[in-house]
Design a protein that fits this description.
Blueprint (H helix, E strand, L loop, with lengths): L1 E10 L2 E10 L4 E5 L6 H9 L6 E6 L2 E2 L10 E4 L11 H6 L7 H14 L15 H13 L5 E5 L7 H18 L2 E6 L2 H7 L2 E6 L2 E6 L1 H6 L4 H7 L3 E13 L5 E7 L2 E7 L3 E7 L8 E4 L2 E4 L1
Parallel strand pairs: 3-8, 3-9, 6-7, 7-8
Antiparallel strand pairs: 1-2, 1-4, 4-5, 9-10, 11-12, 11-14, 12-13, 15-16
Amino acid sequence: MIALSRLAVRVGNFELQDISLDVPTGGYALIIGPTASGKTTLLEAIAGHVRPRAGRVVLEGVDVTELPPERRKLGFVYQQYHLFPHLSVHDNIAYGLNRGTNGGRTARVLELAEMLGIAPLLERGIRGLSGGEQQRVAIARALAPRPKVLLLDEPFASVDPATRAILRRELRTVHEREGITTLQVTHDFDDALRLGDLVAVLAEGRIAQHGRPEEVFRYPNSAYVARFVGSGNVISGDVRRSGEADGEGRFAARFVSEGLTLEVVSDREGPMHAVIRPEDLLLSTSLYGDRKSVV
């Protein structure tokens, strides 16, 4: 479990403010947002590399806010991998394992290498590996000590689209087999749709919206979220009441924008945004008078 409560972090002139988020034990959550929205800073605060100004970080039921990184029992995979260039693939993966049980170390390294498809690379050095191979080594190294929590910083940023798709599948398989609570940051909402149980959209140091990925995609709570997650065409306009309210406070209305009027159901009037998704449009031919029109 990862539980963040009203977390505030300042790095230079940038500040994360009032970050509250719960990731259940064994869950897979993603933090998405544009560059400089604070995604990596948030991971570093959870890992203990950045000290929060306020709030709490709880991992697996333990308040670790004041604990150093080495006592938080988590794995961290940075975007740049940070592998040891003088060590083999095997020794990179085994780096965080207890050296007193060599047979157990070897078995764990082989288990992860086979799971991630890098067993043939174990005796090779790091130099000359592809981006996807290095990413697999970095993930295996983070998982080797069996941490309770795994943090991933843009794990697919340096790989091509085909490798990205393969890594997504492998990462989800590893997550399911290891049962590890995972938090990943990304700028790609497609990662959230394919991987996550929970997604939080970060904007200017605050969480703009969080929920299940499909819920955030279908029901964005602001124009910013709608545009960022690619929900559809976002159009500004005004909602004007055209009917009486029902028992739940909703009423028939018209959404009016330049060149567009929509019949809608709303619970308030005034300036709003409409999100029109291509998959929600229906084109059909209807006969008007002596000619056909597309509506």
